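Lecture notes, part 5. Sequence design as translation. It can be helpful to think of inverse folding as translation between two languages: the language of shapes and the language of residues. The source text, in structure tokens, appears below.
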């Protein structure tokens, strides 16, 4: 009987403790809640940026592959293709960052350099007087599709960054209270020109 009573008490104690393991709710008006929400917004901004850069990297990789493919075509101007390859490889170094894009001229310079390069490459890859090789056509289509998606990536990034910026503005006091990196956060630059 003592064993049964001991077992019952142990079971009751275990049940009581397991029922009380529900996490404590965070007060939505607290600095802790602001921190959690801001971390989520920051993660979203970072994910959108990463997607956009990955798409651009894929476009640069496809452009490099297209230029290699063009060197194997009959009558290829290898000197011109080498110059185009050099220009394509330099684009990564010219690309803006989340911080440097505060200067819209950096975005414009990158876009202009890439657009000018692609325009020349398209003239070489898709001549008016003959049908391109299927591999050249496929790569060109992929590059053009990625280029067309750029605006959508920038819009999605701006939406996430705007939510982040608005949250910073509304919760300045709580962020100051959190201190550390949270008190030093600044609004993120956007692709959309601000008045």
């Amino acid at each position: 009987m003592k064993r049964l009573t001991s077992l019952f008490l142990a079971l009751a104690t275990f049940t009581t403790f397991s029922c009380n393991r529900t996490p404590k709710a965070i007060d939505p008006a607290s600095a802790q809640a602001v921190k959690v929400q801001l971390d989520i917004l920051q993660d979203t901004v970072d994910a959108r940026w990463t997607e956009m850069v990955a798409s651009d990297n894929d476009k640069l990789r496809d452009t490099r592959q297209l230029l290699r493919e063009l060197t194997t075509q009959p009558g290829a101007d290898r000197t011109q293709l080498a110059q185009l390859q050099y220009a394509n490889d330099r684009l990564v170094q010219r690309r803006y960052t989340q911080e440097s894009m505060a200067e819209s001229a950096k975005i414009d310079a990158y876009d202009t350099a890439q657009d000018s390069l692609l325009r020349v490459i398209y003239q070489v890859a898709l001549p008016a007087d003959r049908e391109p090789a299927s591999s050249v056509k496929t790569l060109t289509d992929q590059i053009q599709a990625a280029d067309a998606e750029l605006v959508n990536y920038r819009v999605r990034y701006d939406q996430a960054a705007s939510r982040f910026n608005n949250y910073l503005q509304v919760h300045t006091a709580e962020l100051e209270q959190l201190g550390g990196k949270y008190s030093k956060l600044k609004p993120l630059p956007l692709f959309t020109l601000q008045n």
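The translated text above is only one of many valid answers, since several sequences can fold into similar shapes. The chain has seven helices and no strands.
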